[in-house]
Amino acid sequence: MSERNGAIGDDEGPVSSKTKTRKADRKSHSIELTHNVYTVGWVCALPKEQTAATAMLDQIHPDLPKPPNDHNTYTLGSIGEHNVVIACLPKGKYGNNSAATVATWMIGTFPSIKVGLMVGIGGGIPPKVRLGDVVVSTPVDQYPGVVQWDMGKAEKDNNFKRTGALNNPPSALLTALTKLETKHEMHGSKIHQYLGDLGKKWPSLVPKYTWSDSLKDSLFTPDSSPGTRSRWQVISLILRDMILALLGYLLGGWAFAPINRVAEQMTSHTVNVKVEGTQRKPRDMHVHYGLIASGNQVIKDAKFRDSLNESLGGNVLCVEMEAAGLMNYSPCIVIRGICDYADSQKNKYWQEYAAAVAAACAKELLGYVQPSEVDGERPVKDILDQVLDTVSRAEANVEKVRSKLDRNEDLEILKWLTPIDYGPQQSDLFSRCKDGTGQWLLNSEEFQDWISESKQTLFCPGMPGAGKTIMTSIVVEHLQSKFENASRIGIAYLYCNFHRQQEQKPVDLLLCLLKQLIQGRSSVPENVKSLYDRHMTKRTRPSIDEVSNALHSVFTDYSTVFIIIDALDECQVSGEGRTKFLSEIFNLQAKAEVNLFTTSRAIPEVEREFKGCISLEIRANDEDVYKYLDGRISQAQSHALQRPDLRENIKTEIINAVDGMFLLAKLHLDSLLDMRLPKDIRTALKKLPKGFEAYNDAYREAMDRVERQGLKTQEFAKQVLSWITCARRPLKPLELRHALAVETGASELGEENLPEIEDIVSVLLSIRRRV
Q: Per 3-state DSSP, what percentage of the chain is helix, strand, and coil (rounded to 5)?
């Protein structure tokens, strides 16, 4: 029989397109098109795959009504004598579970579906598979054509054991597949014929869905592949290796390549010399039959791809994201056009063409599926009824599983935004709080107004040591607990620190806020991904305006955003850093629903920025101090401190002395912890300094300790304290060593003058109050 008729023999080959169309025309006139006449389910993941599938239909049928709980969109039509239902995953939804949901709805609406096709694009495993090739899932060894590579359990030694099994394709499709493979071996594929028909019927699809010379395979360039070498180059390489081997033998050892290696090279250099390493022409595409690996994560790593292939015996030809979900619920064959190599160089140039060749291959396969064999298959709906519990669980978990999709890229973007993470600091600060601490602030009228009304700012000044940072941690914890299940509420916080000014410039602080607000989402927003892509290629960092724009975009995704900033007075002052930062925050607050909570020392420059805002001074609350002291005394080693009468006396006297400064409670209690006699404790309590005078006493005591040291140690300690206190910014250890090595009148630093860092630390420890 001629290839033009598309047949191997009278009883094996598919009938011609015209004959199929005529038969379909007669069937469509004689059979009423109801849900029950459709026996082939065709599932796509992307709109471009659906376009290619629709273009392959011989006829397009009118739509049919569907149940209200079916959210799929269907295209109905026929290919030859088969009535086909085409369904596409919802836009933006990918993966096995989404495919399973679509298949479930489709089978419920079209109960006579007996065979399924999953047709679209995938990533190929080079060098076996090239861009533009087609891979058809076929059972290999113990695998049913598709294996879900990420389904299993972790075992010891970081091993991962795959568990479970997917359904085998229906026998009607496997029988047709055998005929198709034989046809391809003997006469070649009809794929290009169908692509030509597509171009005639749908001219607007030609530029993207048919072959174009602009399609280049970057992995197989003419300069990089041994397959492009001429035969004489290959022969020269072989002769060279044989001479080297002979020399090795004459010299008494196989120091060079052995003969069997030469034979291997001969094979690798001569097989597919015409194709390997050259850019593909339309007729060079191949149809491969074998294993497809399916999972819920996009693979964009060549090393991971290759290790996955190795773990499956080197049998994998293609990787994708939907097939395993469909095969669990619908007996099907998966057909994938190769559009990339599942590596970091993913591109979209090949996607439409790859979708078209896959659809054409699916159409050719259906030409070998006999309607009588389909009639003999069991309806998929009957099979599905046996696993209804599993389906229900899958549907319930679809959104949960989708939220865990490949986070590697998202985590990389978050790390790029800023490596700073205030989470551990927040946890450490809040862990120091006693239960019930800070309730006076949370219950205050000012705080309640701030938390309940929109666009509010609460400014909380306080003297040094008043406990502003601890109170900030309490506010953060309160908000996180209150809005734990409120996905539309955003919370971000900053802990400014004088010693970290170099990493707390205005743009850095805004990036920290952006990172925190993104972390709670299922994926990084597209505008932030674009920001990352734009700057990563140039090795640059985003400007403050770009970050502010990104923040504003993220703010609009929330009904309210709470921003908490501690120690604003310690924010970078040089270059108007603090002013610039606050200006950006206030501008964002004017455009979005932002509530701002800040703490600071009561300094005029900061207070001016919050003129007219709600204000609440933070002072050490007596009840909070009492709880703190009670907890510390309970852990003290001195038994004298545990006496009930003395214990209460200590708490009362210290509360009277702190004068609103929480830090003084710690300092005063520290001075009593090493006392053993009740008389000494009571005497010390009567002499407790109050307010700022306590800080002066602590300073004087430290200097007294210095004066009690030897003369050289005194001088050295004063030098160290002078440099630490008077430097414009915190000094690094090496900078402090160099500063201490400076001698008046000297033109250079001498190595002999450099003090050891251990001696510097020892001096500082000697003047530190015992705790």
A: 50, 15, 35
Tokens standing for residue 169:
């394709």
Q: Are residues 323 and 201 in the same domain?
A: yes
Is the peptide bond between 127 and the residue preceding it cis, with omega within 30 degrees of 0?
Answer: yes
Same domain as 415, residue 303: no
Question: ∠ at Cα 714 (709, 717), nearest 5°?
Answer: 115
235 lies in some domain: yes
Q: What is the DSSP letter of 377?
A: S
Residue 769 maps to a domain: yes
443, 438, 448, 432: which is closest to 474 by C-alpha? Answer: 438
DSSP-assigned states of every residue in 683-701: HHHHT---THHHHHHHHHH
Listed ranges 208-217, 698-707, 743-752; the one with the highest mean pLDDT: 208-217
433 lies in the same domain as 391: no
Q: Residue 61: which H helix or E strand, with range?
A: strand 59-61
- 305-308's contacts with Cβ under 8 Å and 24+ in sequence apart are 305/123, 305/125, 305/341, 305/342, 305/343, 306/125, 308/149
What is the arithmetic mean of pLDDT over 317-326? 74
Same domain, 484 and 342: no
Task: Indicate the Cα dihedral angle 571, 574, 579, 581, nearest 10°.
Answer: -60
Same domain, 517 and 585: yes
Do 112 and 33 meet the contact criterion of CB atoms below 8 Å apart?
Answer: no
The Cα 766–Cα 750 span in angstroms is 27
pLDDT per residue over 252-263, tens digit each? 443 333 334 333
The number of residues in the chain equals: 771
Claim: this prediction has a pTM higher than 0.85: no
Phi and psi, residue 112, nearest 5°: -95, 5
Residue 261 lies in a domain: yes
Name the residue range of residue 339's domain: 17-218+279-402
**CA separation for the pair 226, 488 (Å, rounded):** 57
Residues 174-197: tens digit of each pLDDT: 888 889 989 888 988 999 999 999
Under 8 Å between Cβ of 422 and 477: no
4 is a domain residue: no
CA of residue 377 relative to chain centroid, distance: 42
Q: Give the other-Cβ count within 10 Å of 206's Cβ.
A: 15
Number of domains in the chain: 5
pLDDT attached to residue 265: 36
| Predicted confidence (pLDDT) per residue in 340-378, tens digit | 998 877 778 899 999 999 999 999 999 999 888 888 777
Contact 122, 346 (CB under 8 A): no
Q: Would you tell me how many other CB atoms lie within 10 Å of the CB of residue 561?
A: 24
